[in-house]
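We now fix the convention by which a protein and its fold are recorded. Think of the row as the fold of the chain written in a discrete alphabet. Here is one such record, which you should read through line by line.
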Amino acid sequence: MGRRRLNGLKSLRAAARSDRSKRHLTQPLYYGGKWWARRLAVATAWMIHEACRDLGDDALVLDPFAGSGTTLGEALRLGHRAIGVEVNPFAVTLLNAAFSARHPKLQDTYDAIATRALEAVGPLYDGPNGPAGYFWAYQAPCSSCRETALLIKRTVIVQHAYPNRLPRGWALCPYDRNVFAITDVRKTKAKCTCCGRFIPLQPKRTGRFECIWCEEEVLPEPDLPGWPPEPVLVAVEIRNGDGVRLFRQPAKEEVALAAGGDSTKLTRSPIDSGLTTEQILRWGYVDWADLLHPRQRVLASAISRRVARVEDEELREQLALAFSPFFEYHCRLAS
């Protein structure tokens, strides 16, 4: 491999490492909505540049699986022509949004809807003096012992991004739901400061939920009382006078506030059977609203109703994409 090419690959690797954690900021054109197969723009541009190096500045780039348009956009940015083919209707919507002018009323309408939606969910929080953050989990009766089990794979709920340098963290005891500080998140177990039991800190790499009481796998039983798994508030974050983050179990009043959205009714949207929904249906969820916890349903309803009332079709579609990250990051399917 020539020295020039080797240096180019090193530069690509450095740029990719820098961009991968902030892709929505460095390449917002292609991030109108969630798309699983999206490639880094910097890597895509490098590949196009290498492939078209000997073809001049007006090469024709074809992408038969265009997705959200990264290849097309980077080809155009480098001065080439581009043709994209895509059969997925959502991807086509993303493509149209990426390469169309932004509606002049998008920002103002988005801000107005977001403000009103936040006002709707505000009563479910304890105001400016309440917790700074909330931790949710899901629970269900174990299919073997029938005890209620938390469906969590790791008891460490808070740790530093670099645990080898700063190993302290916070853990959740799955027995009594106690939240306590631990000195080293890298250890295999820690002793709960409330019940005295030792809890595992490192998850088993099985991809399954294990009952803490009988150590059997928790299997889906949609016909069993308590199914599908229900959301439960397990911890809150508070800040002391110095701004230090502390964590504790939620108080009864906080739990009651968290459940306050259960009366909110979203428009019914049944989950269709298919390859990508088989697992959801097997766990007993039958409606897309089931994938949100109570507070999220309030906010989802407030957003959806207001977007649906927008008469301008182009503006309505752009608003739907602009708010789509809420549904991406605030549901049980979130990565």
Notes: The radius of gyration is 24 Å.
